[in-house]
UniProtKB/TrEMBL annotation:
<protein>
    <recommendedName>
        <fullName>CNH domain-containing protein</fullName>
    </recommendedName>
</protein>
<dbReference type="InterPro" id="IPR000547">
    <property type="entry name" value="Clathrin_H-chain/VPS_repeat"/>
</dbReference>
<dbReference type="GO" id="GO:0006886">
    <property type="term" value="P:intracellular protein transport"/>
</dbReference>
<feature type="domain" description="CNH">
    <location>
        <begin position="23"/>
        <end position="297"/>
    </location>
</feature>
<dbReference type="Pfam" id="PF10366">
    <property type="entry name" value="Vps39_1"/>
</dbReference>
<dbReference type="Pfam" id="PF10367">
    <property type="entry name" value="zf-Vps39_C"/>
</dbReference>
<feature type="repeat" description="CHCR">
    <location>
        <begin position="546"/>
        <end position="711"/>
    </location>
</feature>
<dbReference type="GO" id="GO:0034058">
    <property type="term" value="P:endosomal vesicle fusion"/>
</dbReference>
<dbReference type="GO" id="GO:0006914">
    <property type="term" value="P:autophagy"/>
</dbReference>
<dbReference type="Pfam" id="PF00780">
    <property type="entry name" value="CNH"/>
</dbReference>
<dbReference type="InterPro" id="IPR001180">
    <property type="entry name" value="CNH_dom"/>
</dbReference>
<dbReference type="InterPro" id="IPR032914">
    <property type="entry name" value="Vam6/VPS39/TRAP1"/>
</dbReference>
<dbReference type="GO" id="GO:0005737">
    <property type="term" value="C:cytoplasm"/>
</dbReference>
<dbReference type="InterPro" id="IPR019452">
    <property type="entry name" value="VPS39/TGF_beta_rcpt-assoc_1"/>
</dbReference>
<dbReference type="InterPro" id="IPR019453">
    <property type="entry name" value="VPS39/TGFA1_Znf"/>
</dbReference>
<dbReference type="GO" id="GO:0016020">
    <property type="term" value="C:membrane"/>
</dbReference>
Length: 849
């Protein structure tokens, strides 16, 4: 698909080159900055100065001023010109010889060194390898020798560096670093003249058509291939781009990224290097030359010279977008990154992405549009503004200029098609939801939330309540009228039955859930009483689901909640249960308060004739569970409340146990309740997490209560025997035998005695085994220690004492820690000297104090 990428602008007119001569033809061109050199068929070099001008219409034009022309005196056409600006020289190929002239005066410069004659073609190395900034590297093809000479051109000499043989006679070449791309008589090839490695590319008959070998970048070349193709090849002989398709009669090619230009008999064609598609065709008759010079593309006929001026990339991209060619525009934008400063490119790239997104938005390509909006960091208000009445009335937003799209609003876009309208609104809901959950709404959250609320309300979307229940920035002035317009009424009126709204059947639970996480405490207190009156069990969750802290925003102080719930007794109990049992808050007042409420509830039920056994049992189980598990409540207070009730004996026993009054507790359980299993369970509970001796004393105390002869009914022999037989491992048999009456028979105690003796024997044998293992381990450790200390100590006449530095004359020696041998007398002397040295050190340090 076409795009206008270049404009053809005249640079050098016919009269400026030919004058009055008719048969003068341009044979070659060279451009260096503002300087343009032409070589003609009459052996002249013409030097022009090109000045860029801007026309009143803002177009680029060129003015050429002729500075000089010079006759070389060889009567042959000037075939090639190459500028070497570093040394201010112009390299000329004329009459098969290389001549060096001054760039300013065009006078021939005498050069020593190698004389280059019989030359058919040459090229400059634009990626030199010598590292000398004041010379130019070039490759020269010599006629009928099948060789290429690598030379360096200096101000005053030409030096031959290397001569490289080729399989066939080269017709054309291009050079990049050590890599030469050659058009031989029958094929193209890549040759590395440093390593000698070569790679054949593809066949090409140079006699049938003119070869093209052009360097287009580092280690990459453009070649004219059979079938009218422009092939790309790198230094390894591989092609990393698809070929471009041009005509069979291409005479020359040039590159102005991202385009490849080709010249044939009547046209200049422009192909993209990015997608290899033909983008533009310019009519150009009598074309002879096409070359690029540092981003400037020059095309010449035999009589005149023109400049192909590239249109700004931004204009090309906008033309593509105007034609809705989104992918091409984006590809061209990404390719432009190499030619545009980073900050400017980022701004351009974001805008192009936003424009592309709106084009695809208008074509209902919502997934692509969303991705481009996201990457382009679109101000979401640009999108919201297309939807009538969605932006808040207080919004000061104005659309971007120049505009990002051509749409007035959604009505203009859909032309009244309601099905399309709903598609666009569903897309906006999806997009705003994603924007809201990211950082894309920063700075204009009110606009986003208000627009989303309006869309939810209008469509009856299920997420409306979620939006309202979460932290939001919806503007009340816009939201309330909109909700009423679409019959989305106040929750309390709906729940109370005053209004009808089928948004959610579980609306009361939803409201409680909303209040549970609402950070607006004023709103919570305002509606809490209504929720508690409607359903205390559900309403109290407003407080139970909140963190127990008063230091952070949106959290409630439990003291305030408890004070507030005094008028809602059921909710108060549930909240205290939440603090004590669920949250396990360790505060005495909460535990005591809950225990008192439990106790009052039990006493009330016990005194009420209509209360059922199940109700009383459930209430007592709650109280007993709290009394046993908690250690924070005020025991004496509760004991005073249950003391007068004969029906709460078990609770009294538990409270006496909390006060370590185990005798009173066991008497209540054994003699008043006559509940022997409860007494044994009490002993296990009261001795939990205690020492073995404490547990043993408690069970002996229970045995003593059973055997007490002074209580009514006398000793409880059966209960005592059952206790001994069930818990034989807890009792001390000696203490038990002393406590038992002498008239008890041994068969009665046989189970207890057997288990006790067996346990005693087992304990004795286990301790003996443990003692034996410990002794064996100790013996092994002593053996290892002796083996470690008993190793040989080597002493010789060549080995010195580390204390006196004299050698050993006798085998007698002492050992320092670590096994180092020393003289016995040295150790003794050292031991005597240590106290005096210590005193001297102390005295020395005291003199400095």
């Amino acid at each position: 698909m076409s795009v206008k990428a270049f404009e053809l602008v005249p640079a050098v007119e016919r009269d400026q080159v030919m004058g009055e001569k008719v048969r003068i033809n341009i044979e070659c061109i060279e451009c260096c900055g503002k300087h343009l050199y032409l070589g003609t068929n009459d052996c002249f070099i013409h030097h022009f100065l090109l000045e860029e001008l801007t026309t009143p219409r803002g177009r680029l034009a060129y003015s050429a001023q002729k500075l000089l022309h010079k006759y070389l005196g060889l009567k042959k056409p000037v075939m090639e010109l190459k500028a070497a600006s570093a040394i201010e020289r112009l390299i000329v190929l004329c009459d098969s010889s290389i001549t060096v002239v001054d760039m300013v005066t065009l006078e021939a410069v005498p050069t020593g060194g190698t004389k280059l004659k019989g030359v058919t073609a040459f090229c400059i190395n634009e990626n030199p390898v010598t590292g000398d900034a004041f010379c130019v590297e070039m490759a020269v093809v010599l006629a009928r020798r099948r060789t290429v000479q690598i030379c360096s051109v200096h101000e005053d000499r030409v030096q031959l560096l290397k001569e490289v043989s080729t399989p066939e006679q080269p017709c054309a070449l291009s050079l990049d670093g050590y890599n030469m791309c050659l058009a031989l008589s029958s094929q193209y090839m890549i040759l590395n003249y440093s390593t000698g490695a070569s790679q054949d590319l593809f066949p090409f008959d140079c006699e049938e058509r003119k070869p093209i070998v052009k360097r287009i970048g580092r280690e990459e070349f453009l070649l004219a291939a059979p079938g009218g193709l422009g092939m790309f090849a790198n230094a390894e002989g591989m092609s990393q781009r698809a070929p471009v398709s041009w005509s069979e009669s291409v005479m020359a090619a040039a590159v102005c990224f991202p385009y490849v230009l080709a010249l044939d008999e009547g046209f200049v064609t422009v192909h993209s290097m990015l997608d290899q598609q033909l983008k533009q065709t310019l009519a150009f008759r009598d074309g002879q030359l096409l070359q690029d010079f540092e981003g400037k593309v020059v095309v010449a006929s035999s009589k005149a010279v023109y400049i192909l001026v590239p249109l700004p990339l931004e204009q090309q991209i906008q033309d593509l977008l105007a034609s809705h060619r989104v992918e091409e525009a984006l590809t061209l934008t990404e390719a432009a990154q190499r030619n545009i400063p980073k900050e400017k490119y980022q701004v351009l790239h974001r805008r192009i992405l936003q424009q592309a997104g709106f084009i695809q938005f208008g074509q209902l390509q919502f997934s692509e549009a969303k991705e481009h909006f996201r990457k382009g960091q679109l101000d979401v208000r640009e999108l919201i503004s297309l939807y009538p009445l969605l932006l808040p009335s207080s919004s000061s937003f104005t659309r971007c200029y120049p505009p990002l799209h051509e749409f007035a609003d959604l009505n203009h876009l859909t032309q009244g098609n309601q099905e399309k309208v709903q598609l666009f609104k569903r897309f906006l809901i999806s997009f705003l939801h994603e924007v809201r959950s990211s950082d894309g709404a920063n700075g204009f959250r009110e606009d986003v939330d208000t627009a989303l609320l309006k869309l939810y309300a209008e469509s009856g979307h299920e997420s409306l309540l979620d939006l309202l229940a979460s932290e939001n920035s919806c503007l009340l002035a816009d939201s309330v009228p909109w909700l009423e317009k679409h019959h989305k009424w106040m929750w309390i009126k709906i729940i109370n039955g005053d209004l009808k709204d089928s948004t959610r059947p579980d609306l009361f639970e939803y409201v409680v859930d909303f209040l549970s996480f609402c950070s607006n405490l004023e709103l919570v207190w305002r509606h809490a009483d209504w929720a508690l009156q409607r359903d205390p069990k559900i309403g109290v969750q407003i407080f139970c689901r909140r963190p127990v802290s008063e230091e952070q925003r949106g959290q409630l102080n439990p003291e305030e909640v408890i004070s507030y719930l005094q008028k809602h007794s059921q909710a108060l109990v549930l909240y205290l249960e939440h603090l004590v049992l669920d949250r396990r808050v360790q505060k005495e007042k909460y535990h005591t308060h809950l225990a008192v409420l439990y106790t009052d509830r039990v006493l009330c039920l016990v005194s009420r004739p209509s209360a059922t056994e199940d109700q009383i049992s459930a209430a007592r189980q709650k109280l007993q569970h709290l009394l046993r598990d908690s250690s924070l409540y005020r025991v004496q207070l509760l004991l005073g409340k249950v003391q007068a009730s004969e029906q709460l004996l078990l609770e009294r026993a538990t409270l006496h146990g909390k006060l370590q009054e185990h005798g009173q507790a066991l008497n209540i359980l054994v003699h008043q309740l006559r509940d022997h299993p409860a007494a044994e369970e009490y002993c296990s509970w009261a001795s939990a997490s205690r020492s073995t001796s404490y547990r043993q004393d408690l069970f002996h105390q229970l045995l003593g209560v059973y055997l007490d002869p002074d209580v009514p009914g006398g000793p409880q022999t059966v209960a005592a025997v059952d206790l001994l037989n069930r818990h034989a491992d807890v009792f001390d048999p000696v203490r038990v035998l002393k406590l038992l009456p002498e008239d008890w028979s041994l068969p009665l105690l046989r189970p207890f005695l057997c288990r006790t003796l067996r346990a005693s024997v087992h304990a004795r044998r286990t301790s003996q085994v443990a003692l034996g293992l410990a002794q064996a381990q100790n013996l092994q450790l002593q053996h290892d220690r002796l083996m470690h200390r008993g190793g040989p100590v080597l002493v010789s006449e060549k080995k010195g004492c580390p204390l006196c530095h004299n050698t050993f004359s006798e085998p007698d020696c002492a050992c320092l820690p670590g096994g180092t041998p020393v003289h016995i007398q040295c150790v003794a002397r050292r031991a005597l000297d240590l106290p005096s040295e210590h005193r001297q050190e102390n005295g020395h340090s005291s003199n400095h104090t």
